[in-house]
Design a protein that fits this description.
Blueprint (H helix, E strand, L loop, with lengths): L16 E4 H20 L9 E4 L5 E4 L2 H7 L5 H16 L4 H20 L4 H22 L1 E2 L5 H12 L8 H15 L1 E3 L2 E3 L5 E7 L7 E3 L2 E3 L11 E10 L19 H25 L3 E4 L5 H9 L3 E3 L4 H11 L3 E2 L11 E11 L2 E7 L7 E7 L2 H24 L1 E4 L3 H15 L5 H11 L2 H9 L4 H13 L5 E3 L6 E3 L6 E3 H19 L3 E4 L6 H5 L9
Parallel strand pairs: 7-16, 10-11, 10-13, 11-12
Antiparallel strand pairs: 1-21, 2-3, 4-17, 5-6, 8-16, 9-15, 10-14, 14-15, 17-20, 18-19
Helix pairs in contact: 1-3, 1-4, 2-3, 3-4, 3-16, 4-13, 4-16, 5-12, 5-13, 5-16, 6-7, 6-11, 7-11, 8-9, 12-13, 12-15, 14-15
Length: about 550
């Protein structure tokens, strides 16, 4: 019988890069750990900032985890999964992004040592899932109640969110403004509290100091009045919100009007003017003395509105129109013919104010505004951007605490308590999952360890003291990074919403399990995708 040569079988295109088994797991874990290490130094009150320079030279200086990861333009596929953890945390709570990413990185680091002990990835994944569920149960059990009436506690939550960020110098003032703003937008229903953080508009302006920031009981628009003859300030404002252009409509199709007689030309112009005059008369008839228009306002119409003493702004964004409606109680009118007195909103004052080198329109002293504005000030663009991010975190934390009505101690206290309880839980398991749950419990200690490292303290001494305090049933024993001493985080006002912790633990556990279950990475492929294959991140291994 002739000796036949066995032909190799190619099931993937020639340019495909592939790695399998332990190599794939190691590369994915390494990429995720590198992302976590990048943001780890920003954690806590003594965390450092990152300067990110983009391709056009724009600079961002921040220690906000999700901002850093988004600006970095990460390409590695596994690293992108860690970035998604930060984005989810930002969308769900608005804070705790660095915590979530650092936890995910540490869970994968612990998993790597388990893999080296020949423990199968699915066993680790099962143990991590069990630990994640138990962690949420423990956090819910140890959490304390938070109520809408407890303003002092809510302020402490807001201050904790801003500590270590650019707004720290004026955190007392900003926390007071944040809590007032959140209380303003809350609607109490029979099903509970209804609130949307989008109802708090954050308007930033360079100039002055952070201490010049203030809460406006209404809406601040980055617009000015459209005609110099209009009043600069209107008291007892009756506000019309119009969602259509105060202009003569153009034809839908291309059309030409032929005019041979100059008189007809004048008649045509007079007709156009009369149409605009009628539009303005409808506004006047409704009783409105302030008009906010989502679309354009013709020059002639501007003149007529000014003659009637009406304050007007045009090209207001859709979101600002909705906020104005919530703040003033006005209905947004699409058809000018339907505008009536009952559609008008009310505000104590509508005024054009010079802020820095630009004019802004303040809609203030609204009777019961369900949308308000926080005007954030700062000496430079970079300062005001970072203050805005800090205020957004504080708003997110305050709302998250009120939604769940639960909060936990910060300063690493809840993580040590979690670790301690999970280690007890691990002892109740009999299979190899016990090792994974134990690794999960140890991974929780990365938060107080990082807080200590970033403050220049000895992490081993700090963790030893914290464990000893928690063994004495001091569940809120945390680390004061300024003194290096163990404190009662709750009594010292270092308080965070429960949602930050539960979301961070859940997201970190889920992404760690997902990355651990990957044992084959196939990149690029196909002659037409040579460029794609070659553009894979340099941190990907050569297959």
């Amino acid at each position: 019988m002739a000796n036949r040569e066995v032909q190799p079988i190619f099931i993937l295109p020639e340019n495909t890069k592939r790695t399998t088994g332990r190599d794939a797991q190691r590369m994915n874990i390494m990429a995720a750990k590198l992302v976590a290490e990048t943001v780890r130094t920003t954690l806590g009150p003594k965390g450092m900032d990152k300067m990110i320079v983009d391709t056009v030279g724009d600079i961002t200086v921040t220690n906000d985890g999700v901002t850093i990861l988004e600006e970095m333009s990460i390409e590695h596929p596994s690293a992108k999964m860690i970035v998604e953890v930060a984005k989810t945390q930002e969308d769900e709570v608005g804070d705790g992004t660095t915590t979530a990413v650092v936890l995910a990185g540490e869970l994968l680091k612990k998993a790597e040592s388990l893999l080296d002990q020949e423990i199968h990835p699915t066993v680790i994944a099962k143990g991590y899932r069990l630990a994640g569920e138990k962690a949420r149960e423990i956090l819910n059990r140890i959490a304390e109640d938070v109520g809408l009436d407890n303003t002092a506690l809510l302020k402490k939550i807001a201050i904790t969110a801003m500590t270590g960020k650019g707004a720290e110098s004026s955190k007392e003032l900003l926390a007071d403004l944040v809590v007032k703003a959140v209380k303003r937008i809350i609607t109490e229903t029979k099903d509970g509290l209804v609130m949307d953080k989008d109802d708090i508009k954050i308007e930033k302006k360079v100039g002055g100091g952070v201490e010049d920031s203030k809460l406006i009981e209404g809406i601040v628009l980055d617009k000015e009045r459209i005609h110099s003859s209009m009043p600069r300030k209107v008291e007892n404002a009756r506000i019309a919100l119009i969602d259509s252009a105060i202009e003569v409509k153009n034809t839908e199709i291309d059309a030409k009007i032929s005019i041979t007689d100059p008189e007809k030309m004048q008649a045509f112009l007079d007709m156009e003017e009369n149409m605009l005059r009628k539009m303005v008369d409808k506004v006047v008839a409704s009783g409105a003395n302030v008009v906010f228009c989502q679309k354009g306002i013709d020059d002639t119409a501007q003149h007529f509105l000014a003659k009637k003493g009406i304050f007007a702004c045009r090209r207001i964004s859709k979101t600002d129109m909705e906020k104005l409606s919530k703040a003033t109680g006005a209905n947004i009118v699409t058809d000018l013919n339907d505008l009536s007195p009952k559609d008008l909103g009310r505000a104590g004052i509508v005024e054009e104010v010079r802020v820095g080198d630009e004019s802004m329109t303040y809609v203030m002293n609204c009777k019961n505004p369900k949308a308000v504005t926080l005007l954030v000030r700062g000496s430079t663009e970079h300062v005001v951007d970072e203050v805005k991010r800090a205020v957004e975190d504080a708003i997110g934390d305050t709302i998250a605490a009120l939604r769940n009505n639960k909060a936990v101690g910060g300063a690493g206290a809840s993580e040590i308590e979690l670790s301690r309880n999970l280690l007890k839980y691990a002892e109740s398991l009999s299979g190899r999952e016990q090792l994974a749950v134990k690794a999960f419990a140890e991974a929780m200690e990365i938060i107080p360890r990082t807080l200590a490292e970033n403050a220049g303290l000895d992490p081993i001494d700090v963790l030893t003291e914290l464990r000893a305090a928690h063994d004495k049933k001091q569940k809120w024993a945390g680390i004061n990074v300024f003194t290096g001493k163990v404190i009662d985080a709750w009594k010292q006002g270092v308080i965070e919403p429960l949602k930050i912790k539960t979301q961070a633990v859940s997201s970190a556990a889920e992404v760690a399990v997902m990355i651990l279950r990957i044992d084959d990475v196939i990149a690029g492929g196909g002659s037409e995708s040579n460029s794609k294959a070659s553009s894979m991140p340099s941190s990907m291994p050569e297959y």
